[in-house]
Backbone:
């Protein structure tokens, strides 16, 4: 078990395990959704799904979060 947040886990996979970013993101989103049986509504960006989106900067730090298509208050540091 771990108390690390998903952004930390993605950063670790990319930086320490040399996993390509696209693969690390898929491992953090699509794979768990499929294993939990909820891939019909989340895990990938597709029409009709939940529209949960995390924007990362080049250093893989969270810059903004959308949940169900709505910007989560106090998460937008893009400006």
Residues:
């Amino acid at each position: 078990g771990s108390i690390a947040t998903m952004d930390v886990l993605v950063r670790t996979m990319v930086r320490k395990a040399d996993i390509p970013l696209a693969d690390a993101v898929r491992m953090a989103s699509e794979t768990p959704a499929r294993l939990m049986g909820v891939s019909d509504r989340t895990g990938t960006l597709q029409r009709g799904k939940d529209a949960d989106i995390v924007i990362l900067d080049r250093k893989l730090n969270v810059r903004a979060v959308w949940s169900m298509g709505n910007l989560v208050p106090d998460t937008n540091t893009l400006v």
Summary: The helical segments are 6-15, 21-28, 30-36. The first helix runs from residue 6 to 15. The chain has a mean pLDDT of 93. The CA atoms of residues 14 and 21 lie 6 Å apart.
